Amino acid sequence: MFVHLPRSFPVPLLISLTCFDMSNKNKKQSENAPAKEEEVVQINKWDGTAVKHALDDSVKNALMEHSNMKEHFAIIDGRLFICAQAVAIALVALGYDYQYSFPASKPVLIVCVCCYFFLMGVLTIYTTYVEKGIFVVGNQKDGNGNVKRWQASSDMKKYDDKYELTVQLRDSRGVREATVTKSVANFIDVNGVVLDDLVASEVNRIVNSLNADRKDK
């Protein structure tokens, strides 16, 4: 609907009225807009790998929500460093072979291939004996400025519904850890939705027990 205004109607006032009307419309739209719901994680509950990864993510989020907790990336950085070296060696082999065609590049290619497979062996040892299924490490400062290091690892056998979670605490009193094994049905409903509140409740229980210097088995 258009309203005919006289030519003498002040333009600044017209602009102000228009802006006021638009702001009122935007305000009403924002008030009528539905509240943003929390993201729901839904997975294929028959896929063991997807179930394990989803529970790992939920445990990680629950652990990182504790006060003064910051994620520590040293273990992941170590794996990335080994992988970066392997990629660099592969690029050297590719570049040298491009510059000096085979068989002139044969000695360099042999050295690069040997180094590459050596690094793959180092990576296997690193993931098996250093990472050991650890998916999150966090540093937490207490009121006295002391740093507590938390780390969580998990294991889930193929075709098994048991999810094994191990949380380790390293502080000035030493190293303590707690391990719980429960069916994934305790944390995932029939529709494959991860129940983050139940996961957080279990993680908080473990954290409190370790802070109290008790061990769960």
UniProtKB/TrEMBL annotation:
Membrane topology of this protein: Multi-pass membrane protein
Subcellular location, principal: endoplasmic reticulum
Keywords, ordered alphabetically: Endoplasmic reticulum, Membrane, Transmembrane, Transmembrane helix
Listed GO MF terms: peptidase activity
Keyword Repeat attached: no
UniProt keyword annotation of Membrane present: yes
Record Pfam families: SPC25
InterPro entries: Spc2/SPCS2 (IPR009582)
Localisation per UniProt entry: Endoplasmic reticulum membrane
GO BP annotations listed: protein targeting to ER; signal peptide processing
Superkingdom per UniProt: Eukaryota
Segments passing through the bilayer: 73-96, 108-129
GO CC, one annotated term: signal peptidase complex
Family membership noted in the UniProt record: Belongs to the SPCS2 family.
Function: Component of the signal peptidase complex (SPC) which catalyzes the cleavage of N-terminal signal sequences from nascent proteins as they are translocated into the lumen of the endoplasmic reticulum. Enhances the enzymatic activity of SPC and facilitates the interactions between different components of the translocation site.
Record-linked PANTHER family: MICROSOMAL SIGNAL PEPTIDASE 25 KDA SUBUNIT, SIGNAL PEPTIDASE COMPLEX SUBUNIT 2
Protein name as catalogued: Signal peptidase complex subunit 2
Taxonomic source organism: Anopheles stephensi
Organism taxonomic ancestry: Eukaryota, Metazoa, Ecdysozoa, Arthropoda, Hexapoda
